[in-house]
Fold Sensory/regulatory protein RpfC.
Amino acid sequence: MLLDTVVRASADQDHSSLETRSSPARFGLGRVGAWAGPILGLSAIVLIWFSSYYFIAYEEREARQSAFRNATNLASAFEEQLIRTIRSIDQTLLYVREKYVGSSGDFDISLWTQNNPVITGLYFQVSVVDKDGRLLTSNISGPSPGIDLHDREHFRIHASRNVDELFISKPVFGRVSKKMSIQFTRRISLADGSFGGVVVMSMSTDYLADFYRSIDLGEGGVVALVGTDGIVRARTQQADDTVGQSLLQSGLFAAFMRAEYGIYEGASKFDGVDRLIAYRKIRDYPLVVLVGLSHATVFAEVREITADLGIAALLISLGLAAMTVLLWRYQQALMRARDAAEAGTRARMEFLAMMSHEIRTPMNGVVGMSEVLMDAGLTSQQQGFVRTLRDSATHLLHLINDVLDFSKLEAGRVEVERLGFDLHDLVTCSVGILGPAAAEKNLRLEIDIAPNVPRRIVGDPARLRQVLFNLIGNGVKFTEKGGVTVSVGVAPAPAQPDLVRLAFAVRDTGIGISKAGIPRLFKEFTQLDPSIARRFGGTGLGLAICRRLVALMGGTLGVDSEEGKGSTFHFAIDCRIDTVVPGASIDGELPRPHAGDRRDTRILLVEDNEANRQVFIALIGRLGYSADVAATGAEALAICSQRLYDIIFMDVMMPGMDGLAATRAIRKLPPPFCSARIVALTANVLATDRKACLAAGMDDFMAKPVTRADLAARLDWVAGDRRLRDTEFEAPEPVAVDEPVVFDKGIFNDLRDAIGVDGITAVLQVFLAETPGRLSALRRGARQGVGDAVRIEAHTIKSTAASIGFMRLSNVAAALERDAASLSRSALRMKVEGIAAAFETAAVLARARLGGILQQANAEPNQTTGMDHARQAV
C-alpha cells in the first residue's frame, strides 16, 4: 500500500492537477493496492506456520532415526550377551553329561554342584532324566527321584532324534522347581549309540527379564526374547502375562522371519503401546532378541519442541497480524491524505517518509523477537528455522526501507559518499549474488572488465552496487534464453591525472523494449504493458531509483533496446583513482600488515558459538586475514597436534573441554606445536579470570565484545614476529614420540571399564586377527590404484584403532583416508606401508595388554563375575 501511495504521489507530480485524472481510475487503483499489505502479512504468517510444521516434521524424523539406531545397537549388544550366556550353559551341559556318563550312572549331581559352584542366578536347576523319562538326579533338594518327565517336549525331541545338539524349549512350569523356566538340554547317548536320557539345565525367565530391566529404556520400553516359533521366552513388560504367549499372527513376527535383523514400528499385541522396535536373530540359535522404545519416550522432546515452537510461532504471527492491520490502517490513511493533499511534492514525500518510519517500528519488533528466540538456548536446527522466520521479517523491512529510500530521493536527502573500494570485487560480488537465479533459468551471466579499468576507485560503493544489482536482476528476470553480460570500460574524460570516466553497460538477450515504450521506462511505478506486470511482477520503481542514483553520482542512465532481441542499459560516471596503498591507514583505520604477512599468518579460532565465529571471521577478513575454525576444545587440540599456528584465539567458556583445559593440553604438545601465541576470548573481565587464563598458559586476554582495533593490535604483532618463528621452526628435528602418543591409555581404560574384561579381550583379539587382512586389502587397492577401496579400508582401521587408543595408527590411517583420491599408486603404496609399520607397533602393545589382562584374570579368580565364574567351572 505504501508503494501504491508513492504511485499516486508521483502521478500527481507529473500532472498539473488532480482534476485531470478520472475519479474511477484513482479509486480503482487505491482499492486494489489496499489489499497488498494484508496479503503480504498473511503470506508471512503462512510461511511461519509452514516452516514450523516442516521443522517439527524434521525433528520427528530425526528422533525416529535416532531411536532406531539406539534400539539396533542395544539389540546387537543383547545378542552378543545371549550368545555368551547360551554357550556357557552349553559348556556346562556337556561337562555334566561327561561326568554322568563316566560315573556309570552313579552320579550325585547335588553333591557335584556343592563342590562346583556353578549354580548362580544364571540357571537354578541341573538335572538328569533317564531313557524312560524318569528324573534320576537334580541339584534341588526335596523332590523324590522318579518323577515322570517323559511328556516334556525336550525329552521327546531327544528321544526321537539321534542328534547331539543343544535344544532350547518353550517356557514351562517346572514340576520340581515350581518355577517358569526355559530348558536347555542335550541328549545322553550310551556306548552303543542308543538313547540314554537327557541332561537338563533350567534358566528362570525372570533372570532375563530382570537383566533387561536394568537397562533404562524409558517409559514403556521393552526387551523381549522370542523363539523363531513365535513363542515369547522372556519379556520385561508384563512378564507373567506374556511369557509363553505367541506372536505368530502379528506383523512383528512376519517382519523378523523375513530378515536376520531389522526394524519395525507398530502397536504391541500385548499392551497396545506404540513402539519403535529393532530385532536381531541370535546366531546359531532359534531365538530373536527385540528392543522396543515407546513413542512416549522417543517423541517426548519433539512434543516439547512442538509446544515451544507453537508458542513462538503464535507470538510472531500475532505480531505480524498486528503489523498487517497497522500497515493497512496506514495505507488507508495515506490514501485519504493523498486524495485531500494539495501541497507540493516535497511535503508529500516527507509525510511518506514519516509513515514509513512508523511502520518500521513494529517490523523491528518482529525481527527483535526472532533475535531473542535465537538466544533462547535452541538447538542448531531450531536456530536455523528461527533464522528463517527472522529473515522473512527482515525482507519485509527491506521492502519498506526501499520506499523510504525513494522518498529520501524525492526529498533530496540522499548524499553520495566518497570511499575507496575495489571496483572489480564489487562487480564480481554483484554478479555472483544473482548467479543462482540465472542458473535456474540456464542463462549465462558474464563479466567483461577492460584491462585499463583501475582496480581501486573512490566513490559510493553502496549506491553503485544497488544500481548494478537492479539492472542485472532485471536482465535475468526478463531473459529466457541467452544471458546477461556486465561490461566495464574507460570512456574519454577530462584530462586529470587521478580522474577516470567509467562506462558501465548491462546487456541482456531478453524481451527487449519498443521504441515507443522507452520514454516511459524510467517513470516511477510504470509498466510498459499490464501483461508484463502479470508475467514478471514488480512495481516499476527500480529503474526510477537507479536513474536518480546515477544522476547523484554524476551520470545519466540510458538504454538501447530492440523488441524481441534484448536491451543494454548503460551509464558513465567520473571517479577518482584510489591512490591509497592497500594496507596503509585509511580513514583512521589501524595500519595493516603487508599482504604477504596477512596471507602467511596462521590463525586458529576456537569458539563454540556460530554467531561469534561469523563476527570474528568478518572482522579479521576486513583486516586482510583468514582463519581456521574449531568449535570445541577437543577439536582445537586435534587440529593443533597436526598443524602449526602463529596465534590461537581461544574462547574460555565452552562445553566439554573448555578453553583453559584446551590451552593446558596444547602446551603439553611436542615442539613446535605447543608454541603458538594463545589469546583468551571471554566475557568475564574480573582480575581472577585474567589470572586463570594466564595460569593455564595463555599469553593474552581479550574481553568480549571483540573490536577490530583489538584484533588488529594482536594480529599486527604476530605478523611482524612470525618471521623469527618461521626461522626458528623452519625445519624442526623429528620429535621422539613415546608410548602415550602411540597408545592412549586413557581411551583404552575407559573402553575396558565400559565393556568389561571379556569385552576388551574380544576387541583386542578381533583387532589383531582382522587388521592384517585389511592391510592386505590396502596393499591390493594401492597396487591397482583404486582410491575408493583404499579409503574405505583406511577409514575402518582409523576408527577401530582410535576406539581402542592406538592413536598413531589412527592418525596415519586418517591421513590416507583423506588423501587417497589424490595420490598416485606409488604414493598410495608408501602410505600403506606407513600404516603397516604403525600397526606393527600397535600389535606389540595390543599383545602386551592382552597378556596382562589374561594374567590378571588368572591371578584374581575371586574377583570374577558370576558369568566368568561359570565359564571357569566348565
In short: The chain has 29 helices and 23 strands. The CA atoms of residues 315 and 369 lie 9 Å apart. The first strand starts at residue 125 and ends at 130.
